[in-house]
Records
---
Amino acid sequence: MTDSFDPFRSDKPLILYIDFKSPYAYIAKDPAYAIEDQFGIEIDWRPLTLDIPSYLGSARLDAQGKVAESNRTPQQWSGVKYAYRDARRYASLHNLTLRGTTKIWDSSLAGIGMEWAKAQGRAILRSYIDRVYEPFWKRELDIEDSRVIESVLAASGADLSGFADYRNGDGRARHEARQQQIFDAGIFGVPSFIIDGELFFGREHLPRVRWLLGGKRGPAPDIAYQHFGAGSAR
Amino acid sequence: MSKAPLTEVFGDVPAVYIDFKNPKAYLALRPTFALEDELDIAFDWWPVPVSAMSRPQPEQPNEDRGTRHRRIRAGYYERDLHRYASVYGIELADLYRNPDVAVASIGMLWVKERARESLREYVDAVFGRFWQQRLALDDAGAIEALIGEFGVDTAGFQSYASGEGRASFERTAAALREAGIFDVPAYVVEREIFFGRAHLPMVRWLLTGKAGEPPI
């Protein structure tokens, strides 16, 4: 199944890589839905399971929120703390809750579930993404628990027949193979948008993504965490 | 966020922190000037030296995943800077130069204290010439001459640059780093730090009383 997979190509006009454990991917979700709705397109949503310890070090907090284990440098800590604070301030403006995390989650099972939902249609995929993201970031959903993921799929309207075998067999194998292909292709973070074979990492590129989808009308825009009102296609 | 009392480090005026050797700070210049013009405000501009960008290492056989990740990420950021530089018609020279920015930064403080109306021209000229490789940031004579181009009195600049000005610059830079300014451009509004020009819509929203829809 991986033979036809190209990290940079899709039959859809826009590819979006997300990871449920990324707060930045979470706050890019609704703006991405807005793009689908505004341009009347379907995004090719793909899971990218980040290997955070490999590039940002790892850490675990205790029940009191104190660092229990860490191999991060001071610079990595500064970056991580700023990133969480930054994501949280934007999330709060849109009534999204981002609770702190005590560990680096393994989000691969949630990503495999996402592929399963995706195969069953756009409405089920959106429902699944919403039903995972919101409670996960409220710390009300254990995305490493297969029974939890199955219940989310069921609540999203997905047919679960065969999922147990899939998540342990073909689905897991395909996910891992694709993760390697994605990384080998140079896609390293989320949210990552791919349009016309070009990579844009981060939602600050949405003005450029919209400009490209809209036929490059007007001058090329700069990056910005910009509000897009109804009808705005900058 | 910070060990230093923010009220002592950051004033009430919205501030911008830049480093002349940093291409992200250079690309932020025009949109930041544009926001000043639109809102008829003047940011409090400060120089702060941050770490130079790390040059991507050549691919190595048997490199570990973290090394590979950092190499791929650095390569992406390089391409990203160039694609957005073209928005402003800017050609960026070597992104990874790491000159001593103290003299050019002290020159900025000199102009700011003595001729605030010339600060924009000075900052624009230093960035533009450095990135066109027409100015050495550590050349005190060149910096003095540049200041003079804007009609600003340069008498005493050399002794200021090696004495009081340098001490002030180093003291301020240390306090800013302590307060959490580790990257540029940094904007501080309502004592919140924002790294990167992508936050300008948020900065604008805050400075206009949070009117309208918030940025995403």
---
Amino acid sequence: MADQTLPIGGALDVTPHDEAQKGTFLEWLHGWVITVDHKRLGILYVTFALFFLLVAGLEALAIRVQLAMPNNHFVSPEIYNRLFTMHGTTMIFLVGMPILFGFANYIVPLQIGARDMAFPRLNAFSFWLTAFGGLLLYWSFVGGFGLFGVGSAPDAGWFAYAPLTERAFSIGHAMDYWAVALIISGWGTLGTAINILATTISMRCKGMTLMRMPLFTWLMLVVSALTLVTITPLTAAQIMLMIDRYLGGHFFDTQAGGSAVVWMHFFWIFGHPEVYVLALPAFGIASEIIPVFSRKAMFGYPAMVAASAGIGFVSLGVWAHHMFTVGMNGPTTAFFVLSTMLVGIPTGIKIFNWTATLIGGKIWFATPMLFCLGFLIQFLIAGLTGIMLACAPWDWQLHNSYFVVAHFHYVLVGGIVFNIFAAIYYWFPKATGKMLSETLGKWHFWIFLIGFHLTFDTMHIPGILGMPRHIYTYEADRGWGVYNFIETIGAFVQAIAVLIFVYNIVISLMKGKDAGSDPWDAWTLEWAVPSPPPSYNFVVDPVVNSRRPLWDLKHPEDPDWKYE
Amino acid sequence: MFKQISRGLRSILYAAGCAMFLQAGAWAQTITTNTDTFSPASKPAHEIFGLAMFALAITGGIFVVVAAAMAYAIIRYRRRKDDDGSEPPQIFGSVPIEIAWTVIPIIIVVVLFLTSARLIFAIKDAPRPKSALNITVVGHQFWWEVRYPGLGIITANEIHVPVSTKADPQPTYIKLLSADVVHSFWIPQLAGKTDVIPNHVNETWIEPTHTGIYKGQCAQFCGAEHAKMLLRVYVDTPAQFKAWVKQQQQPAVEDPAVAAGREVFMHNACMNCHEIRGTVATGRFGPDLTHVASRDTIASGSVMNTPANLRKWIENPDYFKPGVLMPAMHLSSQQLDQVTAYLETLH
């Protein structure tokens, strides 16, 4: 096996010349709209998600201004409720999932030595469904008023607890936009998940056994399987909601004998695995970046794969920990306490393995690595507050308080967004051929880190002091004011960091340093092709002999396949 | 501002310091009423606080050990300035180490699970003494209806319960119903929250050990004015509670001096939504007003019950609670004065 050589990009570059020629703007636009190239679709996904990151970020800023002081009057309660509903819904469905699936779209085929996804046209269809869903959700600001002159955007929270979403309590079309937009973007997500599953299972290059797959690809395989299981109950529940609203169904209509608790079960059996749909790709990103910038192989690769699959399985059995306060009986509560705490074990294994990868390495503090190290320590804290919340009796106090808000923002921002930034700094050179500025990147990292901790460390305290979520105002005598003020300052610090990031992208696209095919001296196949890769990715089908094909190539005297 | 910070920090430090004495309850003399989950004043909240301290100690220990390991790795193994560019030795894993850091978390999980489970059953299956007071709380958009079935009392937003002592244990069992959407009943110093769900009867209990006014609020998003669906529990001495019950059981005061205001109330839609026992006003949609003047607050705890506030509230409820379901009745200034004067007599 080991006598096979790996074709290195550039050596056999047969990119057709006409591709480099510039057409008119319309031709350029047309090219992007009709594309079925996984790389272009990946870029579309990421651009789409970054746009909505800014939108939902602005919504968050408005929320923080309103809460900065007690009895503040920056926005009305109705607008506030729309803001937090749209912020949550957007961040999950139009930022988190599209950006991570966008990375997968771009990177997975390259990492497994394939020329495209298994179903390129399904891929394009999925993206446009997601994009249309996003458009529809935001169209609610215009169309939600319906014939009633009320409503506008959805305002029942991203969890949309029935019966608040039924017609008796939510007239106008706001909830219809919410449900239909998410059903449509959900189909897009399902299409992508099927595509990634098929791609990772059947499109791997010669020699790439499952246990040689890069961890990011592995995690996307697990995530795609998980997505198929989790999006379905949400779509089902939303269809039931629409039947209630328009066809006289009574699934969640409590005035006619329906059940509010059934909605909660449907929502959270989607909602909790959804957290892992977002977290596992982030773990995958960390598992790519931490080894490369420690200059060491991933410690305990088989354990990492097993832990990922384990998290995927266990996460399907923990949903009712979002419902400890609905009055479940003792044994049921105890079951969900145990299953929730069990997630801590594979997650712990991952954290330990990343730390062990650092030990003995030569850590290079480039921007992607800084974000990953921030993730590592923040995710530890997020996991530990998760264990606290899993102690059901304590959760009876903490549930729906700002402690929970702090906890899941620690997961979603401190864990996932940090890794999303890391991934962009890491793979931007591959996708564009230009390096992002390291100086600006470091400013971005440190300012974002400070803002993040100002906001979300502080946020735990008002939760312990009894501040519930989703309130647009609070009384001065509660003693929550000072913490909220600090959180708001932190939010603006984070916003400054994001502006630096956007500026970095623009300036680097225009005059960034040329990246070359392998700027980080990395080991997976995507770094073997030119940056940006030609539309067919690989001139010759690569053959791999280990988990780190480029390591083998760079170190013929000490290849990995001797040890694996 | 500093006062607030120091209060928050003090409660955390104090809580940590006192954790071990919890079961004895010896520390509780210094209680202040606020919404701090770390200064409990009632039985389930005490036990939950004990569990919280235990879980904090364990997770805090894990954090110190793991974060120290990470910090050590990051600092010790940074790439030095004089690095020769060679790759460090490649280590692919170690089975004994990986078994160790799988087994240790399992043990921690078992301990935390058993501790939590013990408390779940202790609180959920607590024996209910005969002396317990039974009340029913009904969540409405955006206020709380409070009924004392055994005592024939109906009130709103302010719950009175007797204090519990060793000699005379007086737990209160609260049945939770909802008239519309999902709410959540939460008085942080007394007990954890329990959701208030339509078509789904829930129950919780408290056994307050200290008198005082304990604040709380709806903890499940329920619509426009979720933020101002506040709630107070008055923990009274037995004598105070007895007096309160006696007063609440009286029919509404009939003061001829305010007959004009009474007329306004009964001839407008007020009576369709509000009940004043002993009169023709028998509405159930809004709070019972039979003894409204005996309450400290109006608008579900969000405004103090002064004549000026009450007048303003009746004139335009949206002024205090934008999105509230009570409409402005477009009363004249004179009518407003009259109806306010009438309601002020309803002690």
